[in-house]
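As described in the Methods, two query proteins were run sequentially through the folding procedure within a single session, without resetting any intermediate state between them. The first query and its resulting structure tokens are shown here.
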Amino acid sequence: MNSGNNLLFYSILSGLLAGIFWVIGDILIVGFSGDDQEKIKAFENKGIVDPPMAAYMLPGSERRLRWGALIANYAAPLMFFSIISVYQLSAVATAGWRGVRIAALILMVMGYAYSPLAHAGFYFIGTLSKNLYQEEQAGRGISQGQAKLLNNYRKTTHFSWLPAIALTGISWFLFALLIAFGQSELPRFFLLLTPFTLSPLWIVLVRKFKPFHPYLNGAAFNLGMSSYYLILLIWYFLTVK
């Protein structure tokens, strides 16, 4: 792994920065507790499919939600550049594993491509919900047309978010398989350090430790990605450079 070391370094660094920016975006756009029952009730029996979702981002200002969406969107090129590290680190895959390698790379590109819209969708749900809540509090009520628009925003966000997280998760699972079976430059213990394995750990940590809650709600995958690339960067300096 002598050639392309600089490219590998910058790709790893891009992954770390992308993960950090997306964690910040998650904090800004979905870092809320979402357990205010009084606000949830304001959306019940109004034709709104998911009242808890409608009430979830009410504590955030429009500016906070906007920057939560934009900062992740602006960091998307860093995510794509980080895929180079996966490509380089799995270049040693033997003939029988090349299909897995190619599938991992394609699915990762697809998952990352879907992610900005999936993330930004919460901005539109949040800002419309804030407007409807103000209308309800002012006694003007929520019209069926407004409720339908909010439901459509929710549906579009789900249809973009679910494929994004599924394809990205599968891609990292396939890369973890390459690591486990010695089809990458990484030592096998890195199997436990990919976003596929670290993200569930972060879900538990966020729920267990109060300092993380509610700010890191919804940030588990990006915390997993940030952790992986940080560890990978340390490994790079210790073994490659």
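Immediately afterward, the second query was submitted; its sequence and tokens are:
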Amino acid sequence: MKNPDLSNGKKGSLICLGIFFAVMVIASIVAENVYYAGLPSVVTTAVRRDRLRATSHAPGSIGFGKETAKLLSPANFDSVELLVQTGARVKPGEKLYRFSTKEVLQEKIRLELAALQLEKQNRTLGNTQEDGLQREINGLELEELRGRIASLEALAEKEGVVSAIREGIFYAAVQNRAPLYFEQEIGEVVSNTGRAYFDWRMSAEEGRLFHVGNEVSTTITVKEIVDEKQVEKEIPFQARIAESWREGQDICFRAWIGEDVTLGMEEGDSVTVTCNYTSPESYAWVAPQSAVFLDGDTGSGRVYVLGVRERMYGEEYYVTPCQVEVEYRVGNYVALRNFDADGEVVTFSTMPLEADMAVKRMGEE
């Protein structure tokens, strides 16, 4: 016959054991909830890898390469008569200035006399080394004199008038009727070479994308008059950036237009320049920019990469910091260097993050 006291004792022990385990489970659940509730909530974004592609629109202006022809006095003259005003556009054959025909002929005769004297001296020189060197010097001087004499002969035939050889802008370097000396600059004619370029400027942030030597896919928007109406015309072509310089907070660029591109434009005409750029290398891109926790204004900082690890009660999220450098900012995106991880990075956290810190996704509380 069973002892009723013993059976009751076993039942009591089992009940106590059950209560103990139930309390432990409840305590663990409560502790887990308390632990989870204390974790920082984070928002994440996926990292994508791609080349940098940027499109920039900027106002610009058309210019042309220049060729300058210096105009020099062929001799010492008492005066010169300017026939066009400085800054005037001249065409080939247009008269620029006039020397006195009398002065031109006088100078020609004077040089011819000097040449005769040198030739006479050469005939009196002997065969010594000193005489040989003197003969060489005289020969060089005679060559120069004969060239100047020929130039004056041609000038006399034109009655002392000097004309433009090519189209351009004439700039006078002397005053009308001013005395001149040999090879003094009288003026210059500045001509377009026929090859055009365009200049444009960007903010320093945008301008970082473009460098001298880069090829850019470019579209110039020009305005034309068609049937008495102003219309816009787009001219696409490839160009290579030839120059860059700073002006204040902006970066300015110049690119030459290919000789096969016809613009039908004048120097100084305004254009809209659209430049497309694709980087030769790929970058890690994240958005928004708050994904990078910057160290001041250094351009360096950290991103926190989201990971998953096992715990006693299942998996949990945690973060690992990674040092990075910001290469570019385009819109809301940031291109990073020194970042090879994949997956997701934190863009927002309710608490300051630390290495290996456990976190939870916002909205999964």
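The first helix runs from residue 4 to 37. We note this only descriptively and draw no conclusion about the first query from it.
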